[in-house]
Amino acid sequence: MPSPSYLSAEDHAQITAAVAEAELQSAGEIVTILADRSDGYTDVILAWSALAAFLALAALTIVPDFYVGLYDRMIADWGHEWTPRGLFGLALGMGSIAFAALFLLQMWQPLHFFLIPGPVKTARVHDRAIRAFRIGAERRTTGRTGVLIYLSMREHRAEIVADEAIATKVDPEVWGDAMTAMLAHVREGRIADGMSAAVGKVGAIIAPHFPRADDDVNELPDRLIEV
């Protein structure tokens, strides 16, 4: 399934212009990425489904008479005699139904992302941002002055990653202002305004440390990348 597009052509143009303007202030090169999601979380889907199956088996163990009686009423077999094979079959059926039911329910994306623990989302977004930075910005500029602004929509999380020259002079906490400026707009659905605000803040942070030279060359694309 293709990722949805969150921005219009005008929004893309707005962010591109913001990057170009910010890069006029410094030698920094800003890359922006907007992701629909940072991971498929298949392991989380399987974990919840397995837990549902385990709970179904636990319920059968705790109150077996209830489920045995329920099964007898469903098939209306008054003369049914339970054997070990029958009991194991009932357990297998209950576990399988519970597993499949929760697995299918998680295909509904709002529930799927609701069930993903917050720390897992944070870690996956961070890992994806680092991978994107290594591919698109790390050590791709002459002065090692690349910065990635990464926003992941489904997880409601963002990351700012800087190349080594900037990282040695700017503490990670300093990017907090840029993150705050971006998320304030994004929470209200103004994604392009949020990305543009973050770009402006990042440019202002970099400028005192890496002033733009007269012969500065634009080494990385200014356009937003949607993935």
Protein model, in words:
Keywords: Membrane, Transmembrane, Transmembrane helix. InterPro entries: TPM_dom. This is TPM domain-containing protein. It holds the Pfam family TPM_phosphatase. The structure is a single chain. This protein is of the alpha/beta class and 227 residues long. The protein folds into two domains: 9-39 and 117-226, Roll (Diaminopimelate Epimerase, Chain A, domain 1); 42-114, no CATH class. The protein contains nine helices and four strands. α1 (9-23) runs parallel beside α9 (191-206), α2 (42-62) packs across α3 and α2 runs antiparallel to α4 (84-105). It is elongated. The two termini are 12 Å apart. The model has no long low-confidence stretch (mean pLDDT 86).
Percentage of residues in strands: 5-15%
Helix content: 55-70%
Radius of gyration: 26 Å
CATH topology (fold) name of the largest domain: Diaminopimelate Epimerase, Chain A, domain 1
Uncertain spans:
none
Total number of strands: 4
Secondary-structure-based class equals alpha/beta
| Count of discrete structural domains | 2
Q: Kindly provide the name of the CATH class of the largest domain.
A: Alpha Beta
Q: Mind summarizing the main beta sheet? A: 4 strands, mixed
Main β-sheet, spatial strand arrangement: 3-2-1-4
Estimate the mean pLDDT confidence. 86
Calculate the terminal CA-CA distance, rounded to whole Å.
12 Å
Coarse morphology: elongated
Give the SSE string.
HEHHHHHEEHHHE
Protein name: TPM domain-containing protein
Transmembrane segments: 45-67, 87-105
Pfam families: TPM_phosphatase (PF04536)
Keywords: Membrane, Transmembrane, Transmembrane helix
